[in-house]
Protein: Transcriptional regulator MraZ
Organism: uncultured Thermomicrobiales bacterium
Amino acid sequence: MFLGRFAHALDAKGRLAVPARFREALAEGVVLTRGIDRCLSLYPMAAWRPLAEKVSALPITDPDARNFRRMVFAEATDLDLDGQGRILVPPELRRYAGLEREALVVGMDTAIEIWSPERWQAVEEVMEADGAEIAQRLASLI
Amino acid sequence: MFLGRFAHALDAKGRLAVPARFREALAEGVVLTRGIDRCLSLYPMAAWRPLAEKVSALPITDPDARNFRRMVFAEATDLDLDGQGRILVPPELRRYAGLEREALVVGMDTAIEIWSPERWQAVEEVMEADGAEIAQRLASLI
DNA sequence: CCACTTGTCCCCACTTTTCCCCACCGTTGT
DNA sequence: ACAACGGTGGGGAAAAGTGGGGACAAGTGG
């Protein structure tokens, strides 16, 4: 269970420290991939497998499904934490998420998201302004 | 589990280095063949067998099935990696996929695809433009 | 049947990148 | 105040990618 938001630095090599309290759940390996809304998603291996299997099962006869699979798997990377509990974020993913010197590591219960501070702030502002409305609209889904 | 996208050079002899992290899963031999959408597909032998059996089982009475079968098997090659972990891409397949100096080796979970950079970019552009819609449409299949 | 040409494969060497390890520093909690 | 833990930074060893030379085998023509 991942909770909380942590500001960590990306060093010159593109490494990012995972909060110590998350590490135990990630010891079996992780998959880092593009998230929606220009953030990155980090899945523990156990959570990634069922997701990957669903995508793999999409009909190969459907051109859109083929391309969708390509985007999901081509941009994903399987990693292990290094001895210091860090992950290496590939340059392509760094660019996608707009990460430079600083990054926010955000617990999302079953997975982890990684945000550039600027983009995160934009999300926060939206929620601050329209949070009540948004919650109301989602009421039917819960 | 094959993940990620790697740019590697085809040398003058038509050899292509397979990313080191993929090699272990390919040690038992591989089959290289035409993929859909003008890329090449590289299957570990263990994944190829059931696929070949499915294609073989297609009804011989159907003209499309006959042609599909020819396309799959006639251009397929079974290979082993050389000492450096490379495969030799036959000229005919190189031409089919439009490969020249550079190639992208793309993990697709259960298999590997090989793309010319130009064609891959075209796929990326489609997904950038319509990715959100496509994802939404496919959501119903997942 | 033999010589020659062509293409394949194996091996070695070089360059670049990756990753592993160690050391430092700040913060937290005792 | 001190110890321990978590985060940050960098140097060096090992591996990966690339290129080319030479041996071998197969196919072709005389």
